[in-house]
Structure formats: structure tokens, C-alpha cells
Backbone:
């Protein structure tokens, strides 16, 4: 019994070995299962974490993106150099209303009401200025200076520059009714050059446009012949001028006072006239025209014309530029009346001008103005001979007397 058969020993040990092998395989299987469960749980946790990350990235970045964004170095340089975009302020757009027609128009901005007031003010100012210009033209037309110009050009010979300046002063002064001083014109020149003739033409013209009551033609030797009459002449002159000025103020017209032979006017009359020309507080005396006619300074005029005959053009010299200052200094010393006067010097007449005077006078008297006959009559007068030019000593003063002898 002590020794067993090897086969029996094998049969007796087999169940014990199987028992041991069954227990080991179960433990290995359970450990494998537990490992698989742990792996699955970890996988599920990682998957859930990935889903959460992808959901968060989609909410931060573009909503249209369905795949997760991964960091790359491709656009890093552009991102660094790119300037941060400044936030733009969105302008509130106005609602555009289009007309019902097919044409679309862009709506204009709302205009300020102040602009309409400004336009209205400009129109009012324009109408006022235009009306003032029209009134000035109407005021000048009342005096018919165009007709006066035609008369002077037709009947005054050799004094074209004087007539132009005379008409210029009258037109400027008569353009308005309100003035700060009266117009004083002083006509000077030698005998027979047309000073008194211009005075008569002016008196005749203004009598026809403003009336006889507003024109005074004063001849000193006729109205105040002797020294005993000076006090009465002074009083009469003062009252007559005052009455005419007041009447002209009511009629809204400008009176004209013409004084001839001023060189014979006594100093008392000159003082009275100066006080009337320069009133203190009487505005109506400022709207008046005073024309002074004399031969004061005729020696200076004669010398000037003879010394400058070589530069004369068509018998006319630049008297206003060179001769006027000489007369101004002389006449202001003569009397203070000439301080505010505008000087119109008459120059010497040439032989051709004297012949024109003969033709005009002969036509008035009914004689046929034969050219040869006129030349013979002109030769009978005396002249200043300067080179090829001849200036008459007495102008046209003797023309009427010689025509009356025909």
C-alpha cells in the first residue's frame, strides 16, 4: 500500500489541480473586466471633456464654425503687424422717403430760416439802392444838362475844356438834393474869351428849367453903380438871396446865382456873399449854385498861354493842372470868398476861333458868311503872334460891333 501505481497517483492529483486552475482563471477574468471598465470610464470622461471644450470654442468663435480651431503659426506675423481696428461710430441714418414717381431724388438738408431772412434783406437793400439811383437820374433829368451841353458846344468857341469841366461840376452837384456845401464856380479869363456869354447861356437855360424866380443874374455896375448905394445893395442882396433860397427849399429845387463883373464888386458885397455861401446853421443855404465871373488873374492866364503855346493841342492847354494853382494863390489873397470856389480859367482865342465868332454872328444878323469876307474882317483885329499861331488881344469882343457896321 505504501507504493501506489503511477496512474493511480495521476488520477488522484487531477481534481486538485483543476480546482486550483479554475480559481486562478476567474480572478484573471475579473481583473480584466475591471480594467476594461476603467478604460471605458476614462474614455467617456475624455469624450465628455472634448465635447465641452468644442462647445465652448464654438460659442466664442464664429457661430458657423462646426470644427474646433487649432493654433498654428501661419498667420502669427500678420496678427502682430495688424493694427487694432478702431471702433466705428455708427451714424444714425435718416429714413429716405422717395416720391411715388419712378425718379428718385436725394432729399436735401433742412434750410435754416435765417437764410430766408437774409435773402429778403438783400432784396430790400437792392430795391432801395435801385430806387435811389432812379431818383438821382430823375433829379438830373429835371435840369436838362444834355440840352445845356449842346447849347454850349454850339455857341462857345475855343473853350472846350472849360465847358467839359463846367458840365461835370453841374452834373455831380445836381445828382442829389442834399449837400454839405453850395457849389461855387469861378470863371476867369481875359476880355472877349466868352465868360459873360457862358453866364448868359447858363441863366437862360436854368430859367427855362427851374423858373425865373430861382435864377438871379447880378451885374455889379448895373445893380450897385456908386459907393453911396453899397449899404442898400448889401441889404437888398442879402434879402433877395434869402428869399430865393427859402422858395427853392419849398419847391425842392436848387437856385442859381450868377454874379458878373466880380472884379468891380465892393468888399462889403463880397463879405455879404461869403457869409451867405458859408452859413453856420442854415441847411437850406447849402443847396445853391453860385457862379462868379471876372477877369481877375487875366494877366497870369495870358502869360501862361503865350509861354506854353508850343505844347498846346488844338488850341487847348492843360489849364486845370498848371494854371489853377496860380489862380488859387492869387484869388485867395484877393478875398476869402474864393477859398471854396472851383476855378475855370478861359484861355486866349486863336484867329480860327475869332472867325467862327464872325460866321455865327453874321448868320444871326442875316448876312451870308462868305469865307473871304470873314477872313478880311478877322485881319482887322490885333493878335499875339507866337510862332505860327495867332492869339487875339480882345477875343470876340469886337465881332458884334464890326458885324453891325456891315
Residues:
Amino acid at each position: 500500500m505504501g507504493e501506489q501505481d503511477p496512474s493511480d497517483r495521476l488520477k488522484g492529483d487531477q481534481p486538485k489541480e483543476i480546482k486550483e486552475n479554475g480559481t486562478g482563471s476567474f480572478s484573471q477574468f475579473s481583473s480584466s473586466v475591471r480594467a476594461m471598465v476603467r478604460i471605458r470610464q476614462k474614455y467617456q470622461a475624455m469624450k465628455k471633456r472634448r465635447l465641452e471644450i468644442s462647445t465652448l470654442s464654438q460659442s466664442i468663435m464664429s457661430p458657423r464654425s462646426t470644427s474646433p480651431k487649432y493654433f498654428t503659426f501661419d498667420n502669427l506675423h500678420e496678427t502682430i503687424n495688424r493694427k487694432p481696428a478702431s471702433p466705428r461710430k455708427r451714424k444714425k441714418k435718416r429714413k429716405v422717403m422717395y416720391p411715388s414717381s419712378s425718379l428718385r431724388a436725394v432729399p436735401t438738408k433742412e434750410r435754416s430760416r435765417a437764410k430766408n431772412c437774409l435773402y429778403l434783406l438783400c432784396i430790400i437793400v437792392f430795391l432801395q439802392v435801385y430806387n435811389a439811383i432812379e431818383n438821382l437820374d430823375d433829379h438830373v433829368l429835371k435840369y436838362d444838362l444834355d440840352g445845356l451841353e449842346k447849347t454850349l458846344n454850339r455857341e462857345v468857341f475855343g473853350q472846350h475844356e472849360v465847358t467839359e469841366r463846367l458840365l461835370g461840376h453841374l452834373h455831380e452837384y445836381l445828382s442829389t438834393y442834399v449837400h454839405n456845401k453850395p457849389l461855387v464856380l469861378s470863371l476867369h479869363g481875359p476880355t472877349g474869351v466868352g465868360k459873360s456869354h457862358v453866364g448868359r447861356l447858363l441863366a437862360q437855360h436854368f430859367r427855362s428849367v427851374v423858373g425865373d424866380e430861382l435864377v438871379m443874374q447880378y451885374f455889379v455896375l448895373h445893380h450897385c453903380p456908386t459907393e453911396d448905394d453899397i449899404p442898400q445893395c448889401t441889404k437888398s442882396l442879402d434879402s433877395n438871396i434869402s428869399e430865393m433860397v427859402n422858395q427853392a427849399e419849398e419847391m425842392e429845387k436848387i437856385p442859381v446865382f450868377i454874379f458878373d463883373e466880380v472884379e468891380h464888386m465892393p468888399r462889403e458885397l463880397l463879405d455879404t456873399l461869403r457869409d451867405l455861401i458859408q452859413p453856420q446853421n442854415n441847411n437850406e443855404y447849402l443847396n445853391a449854385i453860385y457862379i462868379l465871373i471876372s477877369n481877375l488873374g487875366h494877366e497870369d492866364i495870358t502869360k501862361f498861354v503865350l509861354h506854353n503855346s508850343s505844347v498846346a493841342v488844338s488850341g487847348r492847354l492843360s489849364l486845370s493842372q498848371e494854371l489853377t494853382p496860380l489862380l488859387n494863390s492869387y484869388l485867395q489873397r484877393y478875398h476869402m470868398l474864393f477859398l471854396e470856389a472851383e476855378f475855370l480859367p478861359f484861355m486866349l482865342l486863336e484867329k480860327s476861333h475869332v472867325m467862327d465868332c464872325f460866321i455865327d454872328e453874321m448868320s444871326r444878323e442875316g448876312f451870308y458868311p462868305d469865307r473871304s469876307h470873314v477872313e478880311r474882317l478877322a485881319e482887322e483885329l490885333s493878335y499875339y503872334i507866337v510862332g505860327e499861331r495867332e492869339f487875339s488881344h480882345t477875343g470876340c469882343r469886337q465881332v458884334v460891333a464890326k458885324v453891325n457896321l456891315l
The chain has 14 helices and seven strands. The chain has a mean pLDDT of 79. The first strand starts at residue 183 and ends at 188. Strands lie at 183-188, 215-219, 256-260, 289-294, 342-345, 383-386, 389-392.
